[in-house]
Design brief:
This protein has 451 residues and is an alpha/beta fold. The chain has 14 helices and 17 strands. The protein has 2 domains: 165 residues, Aspartate Aminotransferase, domain 1 (Alpha-Beta Complex), CATH 3.90.1150; 267 residues, Aspartate Aminotransferase, domain 2, CATH 3.40.640. The protein is globular and about 60 Å long.
Length: 451
C-alpha cells in the first residue's frame, strides 16, 4: 500500500515527463501569482506519501501546509464523505438546519479550550475567514474598533487579514487596508536583545506590548488581541506561557478579548488537541479560538468557538456565508475528530515531535548553520543561519535544501520573516520508517549543501 512506502524517485530526475506536461498546462491556464513551491504533481496519496504522475513516491512533510494531520485520504473519512454525499451535498445553514452542523458544533464546544462553560461555534471555509469572523465577534461584543496583532503574524489574505498579517510580501500593492489594526512585538526569544535571560526577555516583550497602548490605541478602544500560540509563517515560534499569562492579565484589566489563532496549530499538531490546552491549564485560556486546516482532513472548513455571551452579541445578518458548515465538510470533520481521539493522534504527534526534536538538537550541536530549534509537539522549526555568532539568516541555504530534498523524494517547506526556517508539518500517521527516511534525506541535504 502507498501509505507504507518510502521515498523513491524512478525517473532519474524530477519532474518526470508526465508531471512536466501538467505543469506546462498549469503555466498556461492559471495565475502565475499562485506559483508552485515545487515542480511537483499528485496522482494519488495515502497517509504521509504522495505518488506523482510519473510513479515517483514523495514523503510529504508539508501536509497541505498543516491540513493533513490525519494523513492523505484516510479511508474512514472517505467513507464518511461518501455516505453524506448519498444523502445531500449542501444545505445553507441560513436556510436549512442539518444535523451534521449541530453535531460538529456541539463537539467543538466540548473540546475547544476557551473561557466559559456554555460555548457556541460558527463555521466558515478558511482560516482567514475564521480569523476575520473572530474579530467581528470581538468587536460586536466589546463595541470597540481596534485590534492588536504581532510581528511575524500570519492570519490570511482577505483585506482585513492582510492588514493583520505582518509579512508585507503577502499584500504588496493591494492597499489601502482597513484601519484599527496595530502591531506589537512578538516574543522571538532567539532574536531577543542580547544579554537578557529568558525571564528578562519576556519582561521586555511585555513592556513592548504595553507601548501599543501609549503609541497606537488607548486600551479602552481595543476590542481584541489576536495571536498565534505558535507562529506559523513567522517561523514556528512558540509564545512563552509566562508572556501569555501577562498578556491575558493585561487584557482582563482593560476589558480586551484574547483571540487565539489555532488555524495551523490545532487538531493534534502540537502534541495536544489544541495548543491552547496548555494555556487553559496555566489559567490563561483565550476568549475566542479560530480553527481550520486539519479540522476536516482536507475538505474546506473553519470555525470560531467562544462562550455564548460573546457569540450572542453578534447582530443578525453581519455574520454568515453560503458554504459555511457545508454538509460534506461537517461529515469529514466529525470523523476526523473521532479518529484523532480514538487513535490518540495528539499523543502520536508528541512522540514524533520528541524524536524529531532530539535529532534536530543533535544537528544544532553538529552543524554551524543550524542556529535554533523550537516548537511544540510535532510543529517544529529549524532556523538556518550563516553562523551561530552572527545569526544572519541563511535563506539561500534553505532554498537549496528544499531543492535537494525534493530531488530525493522529500517535500519540506520554509517559513520565517527571512524564509530561513524549515518547518515540520508531517502527517501524524507517518510510520517510524518514513520518519527515519525523511530525517536521513534532510541531514544528507544539509551535508551536501554546506560542502
Amino acid at each position: 500500500m502507498l501509505k507504507n512506502e518510502l521515498p523513491k524517485i524512478i525517473t532519474g530526475t524530477v519532474p518526470g515527463p508526465n508531471s512536466s506536461a501538467l505543469l506546462e498546462r498549469r503555466a498556461q491556464s492559471t495565475l502565475s501569482a499562485v506559483r508552485p513551491l515545487y515542480p511537483a504533481t499528485i496522482k494519488r496519496a495515502e497517509g504521509a506519501m504522495i505518488e506523482d504522475l510519473d510513479g515517483n513516491y514523495f514523503l510529504d512533510w508539508v501536509g497541505g501546509v498543516g491540513v493533513l494531520n490525519i494523513g492523505h485520504s484516510h479511508p474512514e473519512v472517505v467513507v464518511a464523505v461518501k455516505e453524506q454525499a448519498d444523502l445531500y451535498f449542501h444545505a445553507m445553514f441560513n436556510i436549512l438546519t442539518h444535523e451534521g452542523y449541530i453535531a460538529l458544533a456541539e463537539k467543538l464546544n466540548q473540546i475547544v479550550p476557551v473561557r466559559g462553560g456554555v460555548r457556541k461555534t460558527y463555521f466558515a471555509n478558511s482560516g482567514a475567514e475564521a480569523d476575520e469572523n473572530a474579530v467581528k465577534i470581538a468587536r460586536s461584543y466589546t463595541k470597540r474598533p481596534n485590534i492588536i496583532v504581532f510581528s511575524g503574524a500570519f492570519h490570511g489574505r482577505t483585506l482585513l487579514t492582510m492588514a493583520m498579517t505582518s509579512k508585507k510580501s503577502y499584500s504588496k500593492g493591494l492597499g489601502p487596508f482597513p484601519d484599527g489594526v496595530y502591531r506589537a512585538e512578538f516574543p522571538y526569544l532567539y532574536r531577543a536583545p542580547e544579554g537578557l535571560s529568558n525571564a528578562e526577555s519576556i519582561a521586555y516583550y511585555v513592556e513592548r506590548f504595553q507601548k501599543v497602548f501609549e503609541e497606537c490605541s488607548a486600551p479602552e478602544q481595543v476590542a481584541a488581541v489576536v495571536l498565534e500560540p505558535l507562529q506559523g509563517e513567522g517561523g514556528f515560534i512558540p509564545a512563552p506561557i509566562e508572556w501569555v499569562k501577562a498578556i491575558r492579565q493585561l487584557c482582563d484589566h482593560h476589558g480586551i478579548l484574547l483571540i487565539a489563532d489555532e488555524v495551523q496549530s490545532g487538531f493534534g499538531r502540537t502534541g495536544r488537541m489544541f495548543a491552547c490546552d496548555r494555556w487553559a491549564e496555566a489559567g490563561c485560556a483565550p476568549d475566542i479560538i479560530s480553527t481550520a486546516k486539519s479540522i476536516a482532513g482536507g475538505v474546506p472548513m473553519s470555525a470560531c468557538t467562544a462562550r455564548a455571551e460573546l457569540c450572542d452579541a453578534v447582530v443578525p445578518g453581519t455574520i454568515g456565508g453560503t458554504y459555511g458548515g457545508n454538509a460534506l465538510a461537517c461529515a469529514a470533520a466529525l470523523k476526523v475528530i473521532e479518529i484523532m481521539e480514538r487513535d490518540h493522534l495528539p499523543q502520536r504527534g508528541a512522540e514524533i515531535g520528541e524524536q524529531c526534536m532530539n535529532t534536530f538538537l543533535r544537528w544544532k550541536d553538529s552543524y554551524e548553520v543550524v542556529g535554533d530549534v523550537r516548537g511544540l509537539g510535532c510543529m517544529i522549526g529549524i532556523e538556518f543561519v550563516k553562523d551561530k555568532k552572527s545569526k544572519t539568516p541563511n535563506t539561500d541555504l534553505v532554498t537549496a535544501l528544499m531543492k535537494e530534498c525534493y530531488e530525493h523524494g522529500l517535500l519540506i517547506e520554509n517559513a520565517g520573516t527571512y524564509s530561513n526556517v524549515i518547518r515540520f508539518l508531517a502527517p501524524l500517521v507517518m510510520t517510524d520508517a518514513q520518519l527515519q527516511a525523511g530525517l536521513d534525506i534532510l541531514e544528507q541535504a544539509i551535508q551536501t549543501c554546506t560542502k
